[in-house]
Amino acid sequence: MFTSVIALLSIATIAHAHLCMLAPTQRGGVAGINTHADPICAVLAGPCGNTTAHHPSISIRSAVPFNVVFQKNLDHYYASNPGSFVIDLAMNKNPQEGDFKPLKKIADSATPTGYIYAEMVSVPIVSTELEGVLRVRYITNNPGAPPVFYQCSDVSLM
Predict the structure, then answer these.
(1) What confidence score (pLDDT) does residue 18 get?
(2) Contact assessment for residue 48 and residue 153, using Cβ atoms and an 8 Å cutoff
(3) Peptide bond into 82 cis (omega under 30)
(4) Could you report the average pLDDT of every consecutive run of 10 residues in the chain (158 residues)?
(5) Do 54 and 7 contact (CB within 8 A), yes or no?
(6) pLDDT recorded at residue 39
(7) For the chain, how big is the Rg over CA atoms in Å?
(8) pLDDT the model gives residue 41
(9) How far is the C-alpha of 130 from the C-alpha of 151, rounded, in Å?
């Protein structure tokens, strides 16, 4: 019985949070990110899950490089078919999946749970200030994990 409970709890842990965006700050905040598999980072549905758009957390200048910082909150590295992290941008406040355009792709590797990534990206030039959504996806390619985890941040593009 005890072994069954431990196995069930292990499966429940695997089915929860695995990606947190620290900068710009993800929708819903970052309280609890130091806990592996914390529910604050559990967004399994695209394009941004059931999270609600907010006032932009940061203003980003067009064509000026800036860091996107995110955490592998729980490792799903699959050595025989490694996944990736993709940083996307949509140039509207309430985007659909097709509105996102990739800015950068980072190969997943055997980095441990809790590993912090800081990736430099630039956004395309915009002619007028507008609100958009910056998103990070963790595409696992792991048959024992959900296929994709999402985190979104509301940004101002200038």
Answers:
(1) 82
(2) no
(3) no
(4) 34 52 92 78 89 92 96 94 98 96 98 96 93 97 95 96
(5) no
(6) 77
(7) 16
(8) 81
(9) 20
Residues 102, 86: contact at Cβ < 8 Å? yes
How far the first Cα of the chain sits from its last, in Å, is 59
pLDDT at site 145: 93
Q: What pLDDT score does 119 carry?
A: 98
Model pLDDT, residue 42 = 77
State how far the Cα of 21 lies from the Cα of 69, in Å rounded to an integer.
Answer: 6
67-98 burial: b if 16+ Cβ within 10 Å, else e: ebebbbbbbbbeeeeebebbbbbbbeeebeee
